[in-house]
Amino acid sequence: MASNGVIITPENHGPWINVITWILLLVACLATAVKVFSKWFLHRAFQYDDAHIIASMLIAIGHGVALSVQVASGLGRTWSSLSMENALRFQK
């Protein structure tokens, strides 16, 4: 049976980068949610540190998205395996 997914090869480690990024981002989001919700249930109020941790999570999500775009553009692949178009996109 043929697979439509991306295969990890010695020339392409990009899928590993995506998997690790999104798993760790999920763990961070869950930890942030537990912290913010538990604090809300205990104190019934948000404080400055809650706003900072939520802003940090939004930035981390943006970083995860940017990293996925970079993987699609060639991050994790050997330079010789990139097409000229991907090499130029990756350098930008």
What does this structure look like?
This protein has 92 residues and is an all-alpha fold. Helices cover 70% and strands 0% of the residues. The protein is built from three helices and no strands. The mean pLDDT is 87.
Report the structural category.
Answer: mainly alpha
> Per the principal axes of the C-alpha atoms, what is the gross shape?
elongated
Strand content: under 5%
**How can the largest sheet be summarized?**
none
Quick take:
With 92 residues, this protein is mainly alpha-helical. It has helices spanning 14-43, 48-73, 84-91. The chain is 70% helix and 0% strand.
Describe the protein's topology.
Elements lengths: L13 H30 L4 H26 L10 H8 L1
Helix pairs in contact: 1-2
Q: Which terms summarize this structure?
A:
92 residues
